[in-house]
Amino acid sequence: MLELSIVNQQIAIAGKVLQEETQKNISGAIVAIIEMPEKFRAILSLKALQYGSKWEKMPERPDRKITSNDGYFYFTNLPSGEYLLEASLPTSLTRYNEVRTKVQVSSPINGKISTTMADIVLLPTGIKGRITDANDPKKFITNAKVQIQDSEDASISDRQGNYRLIGLESPKLGQRNITVIVSATGYQKVSQSLNIQRGQVIAEQNFALKSK
């Protein structure tokens, strides 16, 4: 559980970054304040002068945080006003869309800042669906392999035939054409061409396999 005060600092904004499809916590995500009240902008200007050339290269600053192993982040001692946060995953920039959210920080009461909670959900690119027997749609195929051609991206279907292949590479703008190959023991391999778009998961992308 995140403590709402650290040493003599008061947490103004706190939250965690989640992955939309699984709701799992994401560590190593960058959460940056990209719009802010003028008072905080002035504070950052002074900090930038203080640190000089090191400022831009600092991984964490008063306006930029990296999520911990449990996905949490926090900003301390912020002036009241409206802030715009942007979350991204630098290690997978082509696999997730950046997400922005507005947060309001209230004025202190009796010198104490009230923490505003702000969970952020990152949007992955991907496909998901079910693998069934072409001759018996009620028969789910377990352990079918779903793979993107010329890529290491792959997934295995579960006992209900469900698969989920997310975090696929995609351009920042426009679409990427992929070829999905599905194979399973005792069945003929099938392939299908699809267009995927950054930050979107194509649902119900089902496949029916024919017996060999």
Would you kindly provide a written description of the structure presented here, covering whatever features stand out?
The chain is mainly β and 212 residues long. Helices cover 7% and strands 46% of the residues. Strands 1, 2, 5, 7, 9 and 10 form a six-stranded mixed β-sheet that branches. Strands 11, 12, 15, 18 and 19 form a five-stranded mixed β-sheet that branches. Strands 4-3-6-8 form a four-stranded antiparallel β-sheet, with no helix packed on it. The longest helix is centred in the N-terminal third of the chain and has 14 residues, at 38-51. The radius of gyration is 22 Å and the shape is elongated. The relative contact order is 0.17.
Rounded to an integer in angstroms, the radius of gyration calculated over CA atoms is: 22 Å
Q: Structural class given helices, strands, pairing? A: mainly beta
Number of β-strand runs: 19
Note the total helix count: 1
Which spans have pLDDT < 50 for at least 5 consecutive residues? 1-6
Cα end-to-end separation: 53 Å
Question: What best-fitting shape do the alpha-carbon axes yield?
Answer: elongated
Q: Specify the biggest β-sheet.
A: 6 strands, mixed
Helix content: under 10%
Mean pLDDT: 92
Beta content comes to: over 45%
Return the string of H and E elements. EEEHEEEEEEEEEEEEEEEE
Give structural attributes.
212 residues, mainly beta, six-stranded mixed beta sheet, five-stranded mixed beta sheet, 1 helix, 19 strands, elongated, disordered N terminus
Briefly characterize the structure.
This protein has 212 residues and is mainly beta. The chain is built from 1 helix and 19 strands.
